[in-house]
Each structure stands twice: as structure tokens, then as C-alpha cells.
Amino acid sequence: MGTQEKYQEELLILEDEQKENQIVLYNDDVNTFDHVINMLIYACDHTPEQAEQCSIIVHYKGKCTVKSGSYDDLKPRCSKLLEAGLSAEII
Fold first, then answer.
1. Which fold has domain 19-90?
2. Per-domain boundaries in the chain
């Protein structure tokens, strides 16, 4: 195996290891802006401004990535959103 091939193989392995999961929040007709904002601050450690921007994007676009990271970090955060009645999933 040449140096170039070995380098490309190492890059592919690094890319696989660094793939981040994302929590995607979906729009619904039930929850208020205030509830969504408060839950994003609580569950995802958003600033109030960040949470407000995400809630607006969700409202107008139908969905928004609200947090990226490792699956182990995102799972409890997503569970908090789901328990609060929001529609979210980890992708």
C-alpha cells in the first residue's frame, strides 16, 4: 500500500469517527413558542436568542437542527424534548 492510499484510508476512518448526530425538532400545532423556547434552553443549553431563532425556523420551515454532537450526549436531551411534548428525533 502506497503512502497516498494509506493517507486516504486514514482520512476515511477519521471521517467516520467524527460524524455527528443531530437532534431535529419538528413543527406541531400544539406547543406555544414560549414552551418550545423554554425547552430548548433547558434541554439543549441554548441561549434565549438561539432558542427563539430555532423556534421561528421550526415554525416557518417545518423543522430545524437544534443540537449536534455524540449520540450519548444527544439521547437524554432528545428524551427531555419528547417528554415535554415536542416532536424531535436524533438523526
1. Ribosomal Protein L30; Chain: A, (3.30.1390)
2. 19-90
Q: What is the dihedral of CA 88, 46, 66, 11, to 10 degrees?
A: -130
CA dihedral (27, 31, 32, 36) in degrees, to 10, reads -70
* pLDDT at res. 8: 64
pTM exceeds cut of 0.85? no
- pLDDT tens per residue, range 10-24: 656 655 555 789 999
Distances (CA, A) of 86 to 11, 24, 41, 75: 37, 11, 14, 14
